[in-house]
Structures are given as structure tokens and as C-alpha cells.
Protein: Acyl-CoA dehydrogenase family protein
Amino acid sequence: MVTFTEEHTAFRKSVRAFVEREIDPYVDAWERDGRMPTHELFGKLGALGWLGLEYDEAYGGQGADHRFAVVLAEEIGRCDAAGVGMAIAVQTDMATPSLHRFGSEDLKARYLAPAIRGEMVAAIAVTEPDAGSDVAGLRTRATRDGDDWVIDGAKLYITNGVQADWLCLLARTSDEGGARGMSQIVVPTDTPGLRVSRKLDKLGNRCSDTAELAFDGVRVPVANTIGTIGRGFQQQMAQFQNERMVACYGRVGACERALDRTRDYLKQRRAFGGTLMDNQYLAYQLAELYARVDLCRHYNYACAEAYERGEDTSRFATIAKLAIGRLCEDVARTCLQYHGGIGYMEETWTARFLRDMRITSIGGGADEVMLRVIATMHGM
Ligand SMILES: Cc1cc2nc3c(=O)[nH]c(=O)nc-3n(C[C@H](O)[C@H](O)[C@H](O)COP(=O)(O)OP(=O)(O)OC[C@H]3O[C@@H](n4cnc5c(N)ncnc54)[C@H](O)[C@@H]3O)c2cc1C
Structure:
């Protein structure tokens, strides 16, 4: 059982209060607009030190243990629109871990520190029109020209991509093919030749902006390479573990809150001479989902502990991602169903929740890709 100290508990209270005060009152408008004021919100989070909880103090991080990141994700996960948590998680756990781990001091000073302060918005640019699950198939090309990379290609479904100040880009930097010869490169979004070709319209997570990006002769210094030239694929695979872990922490918070809200609704909604909760079938269905949330929470905590010990968490992160993706769908479907007609209305949280949770089984590696990894781990 992972140990949460009084400081973790106090931090949980602070994050919950922040969500209730600074996020939830505004998300309906952000969802309607199809974008949130990311710089403004990140400025507030950065001022609190929450965008760099685990990062070195030298770059403005808090140097805190991983359990603080678990708490942050669980609590942000409870907010009224999952798109907010996705935008924050991209900043803290998807676009910046490689830079923190492998980046040069100069890159960290220019891009990591402002991201931690919330002054710059970051995005992770891996997926392409012809390469999503199969990352080794990506084609965006960075060609060396003296001390510069010249980048040509396209990236698709890039969260924060419309508002981002810089990208953690994965591009092909040699002709080796497959997983070889890729590099991670910091690309400032105001570089000539880089443009948002489309702002995408989505089923859910509507307040989080999602972009298609076009690169046409985008020139950045080779010094913007994160870590080792040619090791980008491997560095990105490690960064994906952070992405999956934090996504799973957040979803446990989201599912628990959804079940609590549905329980409360069933207790007050009357039908057939009693409350809906008097119907044991409904209570048992919710009980089963609560039990699955609990299993996932403690599986997450086992993962978090392994991460704190410095162990490889890919098995934990893969299995958790698969299980929690499925749990999210079951919770969202059940909560909407038990609200009846009102659950289908936009005025009720259940409709957005159903839409928002659907991405869990696709983004950051689809369920089938998780199964492929698990099958390989078991010699299949
Ligand atoms: C809202 C949203 C936000 C996103 N944000 C980002 C981001 O910030 N940065 C980024 O780089 N990417 C992002 N993505 C991309 C996301 O990671 C990919 O969509 C995902 O990895 C799947 O890739 P794909 O869409 O190309 O699907 P494909 O690779 O075309 O796969 C389609 C489907 O085929 C099945 N499948 C695939 N491979 C296998 C297999 N080996 N065996 C069996 N079945 C398989 C799965 O069901 C899969 O869903 C985002 C996507 C969405 C929808």
C-alpha cells in the first residue's frame, strides 16, 4: 500500500479546491468554444509549482516525490471536463519528461523552465496521418544542413497544438528505417514553415485543442535535439510510459467521482414506490464498478511505487492503460444509463463524460496495441 503523508493529503485538498474554484465554473464555456485559455490556466498552475512537481529545482521544479504527481492527476481527473486534465498532462507528463531526462542545460533553461512556470505551452508531436499505432512508420523528416535540421512532414491529433509555444517532435533523422534513426527535437511553433493546417473537431475533450500541423522547410538548430541523435524512438517509448501512467491516475479520479454522482442520483430519484437505489440490481452494478475502480487505483499505486524505486514500469503502465480504458467505458455507459433520459441530455454531466472517456482506449496507444505488448511479454 503506497504511503500518502499528511503533506500529500493537504496537497490533495488544495488541488480539489483549485479545480472547484478555477476550473469547474468555466469548463462549460471552454467546451462550447472548443478551446480553453491554456496560457492563463497554466500561468496559475505554474505559479503554484504544479507543472513541475517532480522536476529538479534547478529548472523551477519542486523536486517532490512521484506520489504528489499521482495526487495531482487523480484530483484534476475529477474535474468537469476531461479535456482540461489532458492539456495539463501533456505539459507535465507527455511533452516534457524526455527534455527533463535527456535535454541539454541550454534547452532546459529555454524550454523546460518556462513550461514549468506555465509561461510556455508544450505539445507532443508523434502521430502522423499515416502512422499512429505504428510509431516506427512515421515519415516526418529532419534533414541535416550544417548546424540545422530542416523539417518536412505533417503531424496529426496534436493536443495543445493550436496554442503550443513549442513541440517535442519525433522525426526521422536518418535513412535507417523502422525504429532506428529517429530523434526528438524541440521545435518552437513560431518557426517559419510550421503552421496549424487544421484545428480538429472532436467527439469529446472538446475544450482541449487538437491540431494538425504542417512542416515545410522548418529550420531549427541541431542543438535543439533532445538527448542522443538517433535514439528518439527509444526516448519516446520511455516518455510514453509517463503518459500512460498519468492518464491512468487521472481516470481513477474521474471514474470514482462519476460513480459517486450516480449513486447520489439513484438515492434521490423515485420510481416504483421507492428510490432507484432500492433496486438491488443497480446497487450491485455500481458496487462492481466501485470494486474495479479500487483494483485499478491500487494497481496504479503499485506502478507508482515501482516508478519511485526507479524500476521499469512498462508492464504496469500497459496493463493499467488497457484495464482502465475498459473501465472508463463501462463506468460512462452505466452512469448515463442509470440517469435515464436526463442522462442523455447535454445539461447533465453524463453526456460529456461518455464522450470524454472514449479516448482512453485510443490515445497514447489503443487497447489492441496494449494487448500486443502484453502478448509479447508473455511470449506470444
Ligand atoms: C483526442 C486525441 C488526442 C491525441 N493527442 C495526441 C498528441 O498530443 N500527440 C500525438 O502524437 N498523438 C496524439 N493522438 C494520437 C493517438 O495517440 C493515436 O490516435 C493513437 O495512437 C492511434 O493511432 P491512429 O489514430 O493512427 O490509429 P491506427 O494506428 O490507424 O489504428 C486504428 C485502430 O486499429 C487497431 N489497431 C492498431 N494497431 C493494431 C494492432 N497491432 N493489432 C490490432 N489492432 C490494431 C486499434 O483498434 C486502433 O484504434 C491523439 C489522438 C486523439 C484522438
